[in-house]
Every structure is written in structure tokens, then in C-alpha cells.
Amino acid sequence: MSAATLAAPILLASLVLGLLYPLFVSTRPTWRQPLLAILSAGLAALVSLSLVQSWQAPLNQNWLQLYTANLQLQASDSIPLALEPVDQFWDNAPLEAALRTYQAQRQLLTAPGAASRPAEADDLDVRIGLLQAVQGQGAEAQVTWQAITKGEAAPLAQILSGLWSDPARLLPDAEMVIQTQLRGWFRAQALTRLYQLQQRDEALVALEMETRQAALAALGRLAVAAGLPILGSGVGVILAIGLGIRALRRRPAAVQPWPVPWDGVTTWQVMVLWGLAFFGTGQVLVPLVGAATGLSLRAADPLIQALYALLSYSALVLAGLGILVASLYPYRGELAKGGWFRAAGRDQAWVWGLGGYVVALPVVLGISLVNQQLLGDHGGGNPLLPVIARSQGGLVALIFALVVAILAPFFEETLFRGFFLGSLTQALPVWGAILASSVAFALAHLNLADFLPLTALGIVLGVVYTRSRGLLAPMIIHSLWNSGSLISLWLLGGGQ
Predict the structure, then answer these.
(1) For residue range 11-40, what is the model confidence (pLDDT) as tens digits?
(2) Do 416 and 274 belong to one domain?
(3) Domain count, the chain
(4) Residue 38 belongs to what domain range?
(5) pTM summary value
(6) How many CA atoms lie within 13 A of 307 on its CB side?
(7) Would residue 403 count as lying in a domain?
(8) Same domain, yes or no, for 186 and 284?
(9) Which of 372, 368, 355, 386 is nearest to 477 (CA)?
(10) What's the DSSP call for residue 347?
(11) Do 283 and 401 have their domain in common?
């Protein structure tokens, strides 16, 4: 039995029980309960369907592994210059690792017996052939390239096949096609072969200098992308141990439930209506507006992709805040007196925010490694990951930063911590409310790949919120987490 077959019913049952709970505890039954029960069943079906579909989709993380492999290939060209004494330990490891990564992604993209070859698979085959050729697997490379007979990649495949043929064949416009369709290490290898056959020594020298500079830049990108999370995780482990020792020595005071002025049915109403609005805006409204305006996440222009992401999340925020304000309007007097949704808590928010972030690093990264082992190459993921990684440029970066580092932390912490967690403390112990709100937070991302890591992150956010008693601290953690992911994506994608 697959992981999706096991996980989907469990998650569906948890969601249904959680949403139906207020129906049984309400002391004043109204017409809202039966209606919300019907809507809850529909929402649960939509969530379960999305989770099953995510299981059938390849991990978006696989594309990031390709970007990492590309940077490692580029960085390997700096070894003779910068790390020559340890070159004997380097050998062909980046080439072999990159070939395995590309072949694994190629298998995921092309279903057995498929009548057509996706364009992405052809692009991968071009690079797989280059990796094979550079490693001396000339016959395998020719087979790989000759299988590409149609599409935009076909002329490039013919050029590369000619360059590595015996005897070599130089086709017209070879240099222009290589310069246009290849990047990084792959372009350098193809141009090197071309210039060698053309006996263009000056071009080879200039290309070598350019390659060395790009290799050192790639080495720096890898060092920052991998080094900062490792360093932060180390600090987080030390801080977590220190906090644990402190808790054993001096038991912290129990966290008090929030004095919620509304009943469980109102909580139920907000979460169900928001969930349905989430699907309505994301699957119906925004695609219609995008089709009318030319905006799409699959557009070739990164700016159009960024504007579509901004439109999608802005619509989601407006719908969610509208539902929250309308549902809580009858309690506006109690909200003003109780200080609900306040940003500043009783302690320094920046201390809680920074401390919570470094503690979250080792926790979530460790859970992510376990999650990868459980799901393998399935589970889908956030569709924005490869889009952000490929997007370079000031305005595009600014738009994605606005969505990921500002809008998302503000809205999601307001809804899941500021409203839902506090509301649940009226029916559950505080630790139960933290766990339930974390599961809901993870489910809202609609993919199995992120479920366990985001549940772990949600628990950290919930603990910090209940201790600091303010939204600013979890917003800071959330923003730092998303910003760190954003920077890592740009570092990995910038060398492509």
C-alpha cells in the first residue's frame, strides 16, 4: 500500500473530525451547523484529492537538485586553480553525481510507453548526452542525442552529436546555437569542444578565463547556500539544548488559554469558508483573471510569473481577511478590549523571533530528511520553487520577496496562530491547539512533500506564539524562514 493510500484517509478523517467537532459541542444549534457540515465534507474531499494528486506528481525539490548539480559541475572547474592539492580526491565525482541526478529526473518526466516526449525531457537528454560524452561514454551519448528528432532541442542535439562523432562534423551556426541554448558548465564544455576542432586558440584561452571566473562564483554560491543553514542549525541545536536545560532547572509557567469571545461554530465557519475561498480564488477566479490579462505561472517571462504569483496571493489574503472580519464583526467590542491579533507580546518579539528561527532550522531540516526517505521522488511541492529559482532580476526578486517574505507571514500567522490556535484553546489543551493548528497550516499547502516539515515549523511557530503572546514573533520566524529559502533558491538558480 502506497504512502498516499495510507496518508490521505488519515488526513481526511482528521480534517473532518476537527471541522465537525463544534457541531457536537455547541449548546445553541442553529441552521449554520448542518450547512457547515456539508461544506466541510466538500472541503475535505478537495483537500484529499489535492493530496493524492501531489503524491502522483514528482518532487519539485528534484529540480533544485538539478540546479545544485549544475553549480557543482561549474565549481569543479575551479579545483585545479584553487584546490589543486586535493584534486585527487575530487576526481569525476561531480560528473557522475550529476549524471545520476539528471537520469533520475529524466525517468520521472517520461512515463513508460508515453507516445510523446516532453520538451523538458529533451532538454534533459541534451545535457545527459554531454555528461556521457565528457566522461568518455561516446556511444551512449550518441544514442541519447539521436533519440531527439523533434522540437527545439533537436538542432542542438544534432550539433553536439556532430562534435563528438568520429570523425567530427561541424554543422552551420553551431556556436550561435550553443551560446543560445546552453548555460554554465554545459555551454563551456560544448564550446571547448567546438573551439578545439576549429583550432581557435584565442577563443579557448578567453573561454578558460571565463570558465574559471564562473567556477569560483559557483563555489561561492554553493558555500553560502549550504553553509548558512548548517551554521544556523548548529546554533539552533545549542540554543535548544540550553533552553531544555533551563526548562528542567526552572519549570516554565503554564500557558493560559485565550479568552475567546466567540463560540466554536464561528471558528468552524471561518476555517471552512476560508478553505473554500482558497480553492475558489486559486482554481477559478485567479486563472480567469490571468487568462484575461495574460498572466500565468507558466509564462516564459519571469516578470509575468511574478505578477501572477502576486495576484494569486493578494486575492487569497483579501478573501481570507474579508471572511475573518465579517465573521468576527459581532465581537468587535470584545476584540478591542481583549487585545486580540496584537503584534507585540509581553516579551521582546525580536528575541523570540530570532531564537525561534535558529531552533526551527535543525528541527525542520531533520524532519525534511526523514520525509524525503518516506516519500522518495513523490509528493509534489510548492510550484513556486522552480519558478523563483529561475527568476533573476531586481523587480522580479522584489515582487517574490513581497509575496513570500511579507504577505505570506502576515496573513498565515494572523489566521493560523492569531485566530485558529487561540480559538482551539477553548476546546483543547494548549499543546493540542498548537498541534491541531500546525496540521491545518501544513494541510493548507496541499502537498504531501511539505506536510511533515511544515507541521514541524508550525509547532515551533505555535510554541513561540503561545509564549510571546504576540503575532510579531512568529511573523518574524516565518519571514526569516521564507527569506532564507528565497535566498537559497536565488543562489542555486543564479548559476543556471
Answers:
(1) 555 555 555 455 444 556 677 788 888 888
(2) yes
(3) 2
(4) 3-55+253-493
(5) 0.84
(6) 14
(7) yes
(8) no
(9) 355
(10) S
(11) yes
